[in-house]
Amino acid sequence: MLEQLRSAGDNLRAAWDDYLHAYSAAQNISIPRNPSHPKASPEFYRQLDTELTFLSSCEAKMQEIKVAINRARHYSMGLAPIHSLPSEILSRTFQFVLAQRCDLHKLSSDNTYYPRYPDKLAHVCSLWRQVAISCCSLWCHIDLSPYEPRYVGLLDRAQTYATRAGKLPIELHVAESIYDLSKKVQTDYDDLYEFISSISNRVEALNSFIDTHFWEFHRSVFGKLLPCQHPKLLKLVLRSQYNFNTFIHAEDFNGDQPNAPYEGFALNITNNQIEDSFAPLTVLHLQGLFPLWSSVAYHGLVDLRLLSTDVYWSTIKEAELISILKSSPGLRILHFGLRISDPTPGTEQISLVHFQDLRVVKLFPDFGGSGACPTSVLRLLAPGSKPLWLSFDGSYISESTSIAVLEKFLSRSRVGRFYTCSIFPPISMFLRHSAHLEYVVFESYDLSLRKKVSPTWLQADGIASLPRLQSLHFTSSTLLEEDLHSLLAFCPNGIVLYSCQVGRTEGSAYVQLNEKELSDIFPTVRSSDHPPYPLENPTANWDLLD
Question: 293 φ, ψ to 5°?
Fold first, then answer.
């Protein structure tokens, strides 16, 4: 093929040179300077006209050749114009972009806009419209809201999406806006209820954000979805802004959940219907609103997230939590932010729950306000041999028992990544368990926190025989020069500062080091404003397991 291309190019260039030479000489005939020379024949002029017509047509042919050569060049380099991609690749590209969050509940009350991503693809050009509409998976996420002015537009769009999704499972997102409390609600939701009933046997994921108290709208939505004859619900996400210790149950249920306001989230369906709907679940994300702790919803999960609201702690007995954890031995992701009551007395042996596939544990000590620390859940966990990523989100807490619990957890786990902005254990602790640690991340450490953290945090006594950390990151932090010197004892060559300040105290003033001073004093310390993870949420990608 290559020889053929070279030969064609050589022949074209040679022929083009001959052609140029011949017709350049023709002007000497067509413009006689000596009257004694004979005039050119009519055939000569007809030939010139023929060539002019040919040259005009060559412009289009040359453009075609350029396009073909450029296309071949791009393909050979792995590049191609997006409109030239096969429909299958184009639709796959659309799906990659689709992974963005819609955050419908964060739209302001005066904002009639709502996420329209797939719609935009269908209005770029006829090709994109054809590809987008024929790609059923682009239309599986459906948003609904009970409030005007978005109610009608979202419902109309939902009906279109449900049709375009074909027979694929649907992810249903029903959300109030946190800004919509003063907005007008619909007086008639019959059209919405009818639509939900029509797709109930296709809903594979339900995401509901409840900003107010549980009212008839929510009761009806759940009542239409849950009593499905062939439940397919695999993922349930329930987030509450104000409700806490609140449980979903049947109106006629007589349970023993302590202090549960059953009248608030009672559904006009049977407990068996609720349990049958929850039985297929594998992913459960809950904040302030929960199925009963005894529910089958907590069985066979791979992803479990139990959180309190921003204002109040939700509470679970340790025995109930142990029962829930034992019901999902294949758990891979655990987020936890509840207050644990009635813990096992210190004199009794704790029954560990074993998880061979556990990969991510995130703890949220500041959910529900101050006065409680959910880190005691670590007492119950016995991860398997796979690397585990552990994080402490929220704000600083001071609790010595948390450090002791963490030390024991590290000793029976293979922690590969550690992130914290709320608990600051002695860094020497990580040296004792550094065999599998890829990196340790401390966020939001500042001078005010320095006064609260235990002096043992940077104590380097007795570490001479211990291995050093491979990588130690600080993000959005303020460090003293003397502290950074101390940190080098724990991690001589892997300290990285992201959006941090380093300085010294001169009297009562804090004097920041400039970039050159920092580099001269600490040549092995790297500084950058571009971390390899989202600075606003360094652990955001941890939950994206293969």
Answer: -60, -25
DSSP 8-state symbol, 297: G
Kindly report the number of other CB atoms within 10 A of residue 259's CB atom. Answer: 6
Predicted pLDDT of residue 261: 42
User: Is 0.85 topped by the overall pTM?
Assistant: no
For residue 359, give every residue at least 6 positions away whose Cβ sits within 8 Å of its Cβ, in sequence order, or none: 332, 333, 386, 387, 388, 389, 545
> What are the sequence ranges of the domains in the chain?
424-546
Mean pLDDT of the chain: 84
Residue 219 to residues 196, 224, 250, 251, 253, Cα–Cα distance (Å): 13, 9, 11, 11, 15
Kindly report the number of other CB atoms within 10 A of residue 523's CB atom.
8
DSSP class per residue in 459-499: --TT-TTSPPPS-EEEES-EEEHHHHHHHTTT-SS-EEEES
CA 412 to CA 450: how far, in whole Å? 30
CA distance 297 to 347: 33
36, 287, 472, 490, 500 from 526: Cα distances, Å: 87, 39, 11, 15, 11
